[in-house]
UniProtKB/TrEMBL annotation, chain A:
InterPro entries recorded: TP_0789-like
Domain Uncharacterized protein TP-0789: 79-262
Domain of life: Bacteria
Signal peptide region: 1-24
Protein name: Outer membrane lipoprotein-sorting protein
A Pfam family: LolA_like
Organism: Oceanospirillum multiglobuliferum
Keywords: Lipoprotein, Signal
TrEMBL record, chain B:
SUPFAM superfamilies hit by this protein: Multidrug efflux transporter AcrB transmembrane domain
Coiled coil: none
Gene3D superfamilies assigned to the protein according to its UniProt record, in alphabetical order: Multidrug efflux transporter AcrB transmembrane domain
Organism, as annotated: Oceanospirillum multiglobuliferum
Regions that span the bilayer: 224-243, 250-271, 277-299, 319-338, 350-373, 401-418, 600-622, 629-649, 655-676, 696-720, 732-753
Topology within the bilayer: Multi-pass membrane protein
The keyword Calcium is annotated on this UniProt entry: no
Keyword Transmembrane: yes
Swiss-Prot/TrEMBL keywords: Cell membrane, Membrane, Transmembrane, Transmembrane helix
Any one GO CC term of the record: plasma membrane
Domain SSD: 247-372
Principal subcellular localization: membrane
Protein name: RND transporter
Length: 264, 776
């Protein structure tokens, strides 16, 4: 088309540019809308479970592996509920962590320690520390809620074979370890392709990249591999996911203090 | 050939001046490439085993580069709402310091405690302004009783606090990284002090030390170098009473420094504390060449020789001795390449280069300048030759007493050399005028010092740090280390685990002990790690595999031998109690503890090589094996005596002093060369007796020797005023050595010659020593 009717092609291009302008959407709104779209496309999975291997590497090249299972229950008007069960290393096997994520207040968290035989409630507003000594913070692992951030659309740019929407998000939580994150979301399926984290002094701290997206339950995209590289200390952490299951009928009873003890 | 060269040179002085200046300008342009590396690590070569161990440890855990804000309220009360608010503000602001990865203070300390079945982990102080007296008292009690805080972040009587900022410097651009951190923390300090005038806030820590290296040197070059120029100008002006000579000498010195530093820039050198002293040292050494040439020139002109002819004569007469003394000086400095510490190699190479450049300029640019500028010589009687004659008379008369007396004095003083103890404390590299030193001394007096040993203990198995046996070993060791008299603070993971065990049992104090199963310890740590905020994690104490842990001991300021003794006792403890675990020890303190010894061993061989080369050169110049051997005594004794005096008075030797023997060797040798060559000239060419030859030597070079010695001693005494104590001590010791060398040459060498050389007259046709005949 463009060869035969170059003029038409130009007209169409300019039209599309004009239309972007005429919509008069601010960068903030556009950024937020992209994230809402991403969230919307990932709504309705009801419940989910998967296994995960966590591979930690330090700057010296030493490696360490941890294994956990995760279960999540989708919540309509609040943050999701999640249950994390630790399998490896052996000495934490059976430890289980229950979390009710909230948009407007601190999350509720309980931990079951099998060696102690007790469920302990953790009262802490800290979510920015490292998850199991990895380069992921609990903040990175927790469920994503639109209202926890404010947004800014930056640009559109190619990412691999796809085109990505680049959106900045600013956490509202004062205790966050970040000033901002920059996400690359592909414009075809609205999947997170890459995330840059900027620390409290706004220096690039970490980059999270997503590999091997697969679609589950005919709708939900999940990456097989997440790789977090810390640029400041040279350490990295890889998450390898397996055995994704959706809509297997979990309910609130699977996400309470009693469920914690049974979890192993 | 040299005569034709000098004739051409003086025939077109302007052309010579312009050509040399063009070369100098080109060389000097390299100076813009010369940058200052503000990093204590420059003192260690990449092959240094302690540095390698430390770098490896920093990769496994987190880096321990830091800045410490030391906060001292005038009313000595940290736990007041206002002062805690200030500390909290410093804590928050410190997250904005470039490359900061962690901030620790009494306010953000993660206080864990139990409340029924809940575990609470929160900032020890979150809202200071709303705290009442009871709450303040409770927080104070927790802080001063916590083994993790006490003496580290809060003084035992809670009158001084520290906010510790850990930094992860990329090390890509040390020229910008360290100053960026320093200017940010200073801005925070200034802001806090402006808001809280009742607080003293000082800055210590590794990064402040690094920045002080550069700042002390810059400070030096803006005070010491001008002072040095003044000394030189005044000395030459007073001694030789010539304006043209003074101006020309200053030009030679300036151009020598510019060309040397420029070439150093072109050659990719970087500046460090010691090598930044190069201009001062070069300045001092370059003067001697000019003085010798001027002295002969004036001598000739006073005897009615026309200027051009007098200059030519002076160049001809001085070419060999000036070359010889420059070469021996250069060899002495080049021997610093044996040093284990790169900055001293750089200093040696830069000065050697400068000395040779000074030689070239003083026989080209210098005569050309003197040719161009008006030069007048007053007919004036020398008053010092009488003084020199009196001195030689005294020496000759009293030679039978002087020889044994001087021998006894020199030997007795040298016996005190072993009283010197090695001590390289990087904090004491700066004197009390430096802000960093004041802050660190204050911190040392009130909390703990900067002397640390980091220990990594490896269990050898994944998650091994959780095993009860391993934890018990760490606990036993920590307790043992705390009982050592040198110990100020021990940072150990077992304190956290014990506290968690207590927290998990409703804060029952009887549970403040290690858990009895691996699973419990592992699950406590998992729980704890999940509740920590950004940057306050355990990655600085545990490796990723949780197979090894880092224990950090902080100690009182110790000498190197005491530090190495602590290191050996720690190793012995583990060999006896826990040989199954692999222990690694590393820290900047240990690096400095070993560098002195390593450097002295390597410098001994360097000095021996320099001595061999210089003796060969001397033997060749004096054409005599016998006098070459005799010259060894006056060349070696001064350093021995100087270190003896040091042993008697100061008694502590650091990195800077370990290079003094080799660097002074090349300088003191000059006096011996001049004296011996005149002596031999008289013996060989004038058929003089030993006594007459001594008298002749005194008469002809005595004055030149004491003038150059005076300039050198002044120059190195100026360097001794440096706030960077490595350079200051190096300067002081060099000044002492050079002064002693003159005393030895005047009071010991002549009686020795008269004793060893009094049997027969030497008759020789060789004129080798004539080349050195000049002056006065």
């Amino acid at each position: 088309m463009s060869l035969k009717y170059p003029l038409l092609a130009i007209t169409l291009t300019s039209l599309s540019i004009t239309s972007t302008f005429t919509l008069a959407e601010t960068a903030e709104e556009k950024g937020r809308n992209i994230m809402i779209e991403m969230d919307k496309r990932d709504t309705g999975w009801q419940d989910m479970q998967a296994g995960m291997q966590m591979i930690l590497r330090n700057a010296q090249g030493e490696e360490s592996v941890r294994e956990i299972r995760m279960k999540s229950l989708e919540q309509e008007n609040d943050g999701d509920k999640s249950l994390t069960i630790f399998d490896e290393p052996k000495d934490v096997k059976g430890t289980a962590f229950l979390s009710f994520s909230h948009v407007d207040k601190d999350d509720d968290q309980w931990l079951y320690l099998p060696a102690l035989g007790r469920v302990k409630r953790i009262s802490s507003s800290n979510k920015s520390g490292p998850f199991m000594g990895s380069e992921f913070s609990y903040e990175d692992m927790g469920s994503f809620e639109i209202d926890k951030y404010s947004y800014n659309f930056i640009k559109e740019e190619p990412c691999g074979n796809l085109t990505c929407l680049v959106v900045e998000s600013f956490p509202k939580d004062k205790k966050s370890g970040y000033t901002r994150r920059i996400s690359w979301v592909d414009n075809s399926e609205y999947r997170m392709q890459k995330l840059d984290f900027y620390d409290r002094k706004n220096s690039l701290l970490k980059t999270l990249s997503f590999e091997g997206y697969q679609q589950y339950a005919g709708q939900f995209w999940r990456a097989d591999k997440l790789k977090m590289q810390n640029h400041q200390n040279g350490k990295s952490t890889e998450l390898v996911w397996s055995g994704y299951q959706f809509k297997s009928g979990l309910d609130d009873a699977d996400f309470n203090k009693n469920a914690l003890k049974r979890a192993r | 050939m040299s005569e034709r060269f000098f004739k051409t040179l003086l025939h077109r002085p302007l052309l010579t001046v312009l050509a040399m200046l063009a070369l100098i300008v080109f060389a000097a342009m390299g100076a813009q490439k010369l940058v200052f590396k503000s990093d204590y690590r420059v003192f260690f070569g990449p092959e240094n085993p302690q540095l390698q161990a430390f770098e490896a440890m920093q990769k496994v855990y987190t880096k321990s580069d830091n800045v410490a804000f030391v906060i001292a309220p005038k009313d000595q009360v940290i736990f007041s709402p206002d002062h805690l608010a200030a500390i909290q503000k410093i804590t928050t602001e410190s997250w904005q310091v470039p490359y900061s990865t962690r901030v620790d203070s009494v306010t953000n300390y993660q206080y864990s405690h139990a409340e029924e079945d809940d575990l609470l982990v929160e900032d020890l102080v979150s809202d200071p302004q709303s705290m009442d007296a009871a709450e303040l008292q409770a927080a104070l009690k927790i802080a001063v009783e916590d083994p993790l805080l006490q003496k580290r972040l809060i003084s035992p009587s809670a009158h001084v606090a520290v906010v510790n900022v850990t930094l992860q410097l990329p090390g890509v651009n040390p020229v910008e990284e360290v100053p960026a951190v320093a200017s940010k923390v200073r801005a925070i300090r200034d802001q806090i002090v402006a808001e809280h005038p009742d607080l003293d806030v000082m800055l210590s820590g590794v990064v402040m030390m690094n920045t002080s290296f550069a700042e002390a040197s810059i400070n030096d070059s803006s005070t010491l170098v001008p002072l040095m120029f003044l000394v030189v100008a005044v000395t030459i002006g007073l001694m030789l009473r010539t304006v043209t000579g003074t101006i020309s000498s200053v030009v030679i010195i300036l151009t020598t420094i510019a060309a040397t530093m420029g070439l150093a820039g072109w050659m990719g050198f970087y500046l460090t504390g010691p090598s930044a002293a190069a201009p001062t040292v070069i300045l001092t050494l370059a003067v001697a060449d000019c003085i010798h040439i001027l002295a002969t020139l004036f001598y000739e002109m006073r005897h009615g020789v026309e200027k051009r002819k007098a200059l030519l004569d002076s160049l001809k007469i001085n070419l060999q001795p000036v070359f010889l003394t420059s070469a021996t000086t250069a060899i002495g400095f080049l021997a610093m390449n044996f040093s284990d510490s790169p900055p001293f190699r750089d200093l040696g190479n830069m000065v050697a280069m400068g000395v040779m450049i000074a030689f070239v300029l003083s026989i080209t640019l210098f005569p050309a300048l003197l040719m161009l500028l008006p030069l007048q010589v007053k007919q004036k009687q020398e008053e010092d030759s009488d003084m020199m004659l009196a001195l030689s008379g005294f020496v000759i008369r009293n030679r039978r007493i002087l020889l044994p007396a001087m021998t006894a004095i020199l030997i007795v003083i040298s016996l005190f050399v072993p009283r010197n103890e090695l001590n390289d404390d990087s904090v004491k590299y700066f004197d009390q005028r430096v802000e960093f030193r004041q802050a660190t001394d204050f911190m040392q007096d009130n909390l703990s010092g900067m002397a640390t040993i980091e220990l990594s203990l490896d269990s050898g198995v994944s998650s091994g740090i959780n095993s009860p046996e391993f934890l018990q070993t760490v606990e036993d060791f920590s307790n043992w280390l705390r009982t050592q008299p040198e110990t100020e603070h021990v940072n150990t993971i077992t304190d956290i685990i014990k506290r968690l065990n207590k927290n998990m049992h409703g804060d029952d104090p009887s549970y403040y002990k290690l858990p009895d199963s691996q699973e419990l310890a592992a699950q406590y740590l998992l729980l704890y790690e999940m509740s920590l905020p950004y940057g306050l994690d355990l990655n600085n104490q545990l490796n990723v595999d949780k197979s090894s842990t880092r224990i950090i001991g902080t100690f009182k300021n110790l000498t190197n031998n005491e530090q190495i003794d602590v290191e050996n006792r720690i190793a012995a403890w583990f060999a006896q109690h826990a040989p199954q675990y692999q222990l690694t020890m590393a820290s900047p303190t240990l690096m400095f503890a070993h560098i002195g010894q390593r450097n002295i061993i390597s410098m001994v061989s360097g000095t021996l090589v320099a001595l061999l080369l210089i003796s060969l050169l001397l033997g060749f110049a004096l054409r005599s094996v016998r006098f070459g051997l005799i010259s060894l005594l006056p060349n070696l004794l001064p350093a021995g005596v100087a270190f003896g005096i040091w042993g008697l008075s100061v008694g502590q030797i650091g990195l800077g002093l370990s290079v003094v023997a080799s660097m002074t060797l090349g300088i003191v040798v000059d006096d011996t060369v001049h004296f011996l060559s005149k002596y031999l000239y008289a013996r060989r060419n004038r058929n003089a007796t030993s006594e007459q030859a001594v008298q002749y030597a005194f008469g002809s070079v005595g004055r030149a020797l004491w003038v150059t010695t005076f300039v050198l001693v002044c120059g190195f005494m100026v360097l001794a005023q440096s706030t960077f104590k490595v350079n200051a001590e190096m300067g002081l010791m060099t000044a002492i050595t050079i002064l002693i060398a003159l005393i030895v040459d005047f009071l010991f060498l002549p009686p020795l010659l008269m004793k060893l050389d009094n049997e027969k007259n030497i008759t020789s046709t060789d004129h080798s020593a004539q080349g050195a005949a000049h002056v006065s």
